[in-house]
């Protein structure tokens, strides 16, 4: 006799911003495979293909149970032929030959290692590979000229490729909070990015800073950075100034998706805790109130002059040291005026795909233009104000999705 299993097809709305995607993923094997194809496409600067695989992975991430048969996927959005082929092979054999051979390919491995250096993107990595550079040692042995970010990236390679834990994020939050309030009482700081979505690890820590009185946030970034630097917390920093109002395309309609807030990309020097829970720093920067200036990190000297130097001059400093009592952590800071705070909060909480889908929804389904600064309604020809994320979802005609369910 035959046992016929009832097949209930899943049903999923097509935009990721219409769905609730928690961190509980019942289809990790499938989504890991599709994410790897997405990553490889992005590393090869085929962004269109990258997004297609990201969308396919996101659909599987929000399913309530593991996929058992192709029939269950009938009618699901965003699953193209290529993705379906990969899924089918994994369901039948447990793995995708395309994904496995990509994972093992020299080119993929080299792109991974080289773009794993802070400050190195797909273009640079591709150029180096064409010049015969496949790994860090070959880069150091080469005569390639590195900019300041890449120098710091190479120097702290090991640390920056270790995931940041929630405990480390909390420790840095505390330092940041104290620093921000000390330079501007009343200023407010919010943890954004993956940690706001409830992730337990991340590749960096992201903070959004504002002040409840419009305008008081002006000049805040440089004060925060100076204060962190004086305490010996920064191994590297690069601040980009706010250019929002200078934009030729006007507020709310940025020419690119890059945000124009005052922003600081930094590498933080985080003391490791000893057994008694006391923080340790090998050069004495014990607490926030410790004597400032006496242990200034390398960022000071590298800023002065000679922004570029040869890879070989960096030596093998990324090697983990037994005695090192601190570790390097990537920290991003964004300052927003309070009038744009809700948009900044929504725009910087992620995930990256969720953000992309929100903007696509706004444009295609509502004739609106959403950025991390504002929401412009083209039909009404005006900006729509909002003081909370809830209001922005309402303007967009979307059900509110809390941060913990934006893990698309
Ligand atoms: N973001 C953006 N535009 C940029 C950079 C980031 O809109 N140019 C948004 C989307 C991200 C969020 O900011 O979700 C934070 O960026 P991250 O790269 O730090 O991403 P996550 O924090 O989500 O991931 P991770 O946990 O790996 O840090
Ligand atoms: Mg992050």
Task: Describe what this molecule looks like in 3D.
The protein is of the alpha+beta class. The protein has 4 domains: 16-102, DNA polymerase, domain 1 (Orthogonal Bundle), CATH 1.10.150.110; 106-142, 5' to 3' exonuclease, C-terminal subdomain (DNA polymerase, domain 1), CATH 1.10.150; 164-335, Beta Polymerase, domain 2, CATH 3.30.460; 339-405, 2-Layer Sandwich (Beta Polymerase, domain 3), CATH 3.30.210. 39% of the residues lie in helices and 14% in strands. The protein is built from 16 helices and 13 strands. The strands form 4 sheets. Strands 3, 5, 6, 7, 8 and 10 form a 6-stranded mixed sheet that branches. Strands 11-12-13 form a 3-stranded antiparallel sheet. The chain has a two-stranded antiparallel ribbon with strand order 1-9. Strand 12 and strand 13 (382-383) form a beta hairpin. The longest helix is centred in the middle third of the chain and has 18 residues, at 166-183. The radius of gyration is 23 Å and the shape is globular. It starts with 27 loop residues before the first helix and ends in a 13-residue tail after the last helix. Mean pLDDT is 89; it is low at 247-258 and 284-305. 2'-deoxycytidine-5'-triphosphate binds at residues 193-194, 199, 202-204, 206, 258-259, 347-348, 350-352, 355.
What does this entry show, briefly?
It is found in: Nucleus. The protein has 408 residues and is of the alpha+beta class.
Q: Report on the biggest sheet.
A: 6 strands, mixed
Question: How many helical stretches?
Answer: 16
Strand content: 5-15%
Name every ligand kind in the structure. Answer: 2'-deoxycytidine-5'-triphosphate, magnesium ion
Quote the average pLDDT: 89
Strand elements, count:
13
Which regions are unreliable across 5 or more consecutive residues at pLDDT < 50? 247-258, 284-305
CATH overall fold name of the largest domain: Beta Polymerase, domain 2
Q: Estimate percent helicity.
A: 25-40%
Order of helices and strands: HHHHHHHEHHEHEHEEHEEEHEEHHEEEH
The gross shape turns out to be: globular
CATH superfamily of the largest domain: Beta Polymerase, domain 2
Number of domains: 4
From the N-terminal CA to the C-terminal CA, the straight-line distance is 42 Å
Helix-strand category: alpha+beta
Computed CA radius of gyration, to the nearest angstrom: 23 Å
Reading off the top of the CATH hierarchy, the class of the largest domain is best stated as Alpha Beta
CATH architect. name of the largest domain? 2-Layer Sandwich
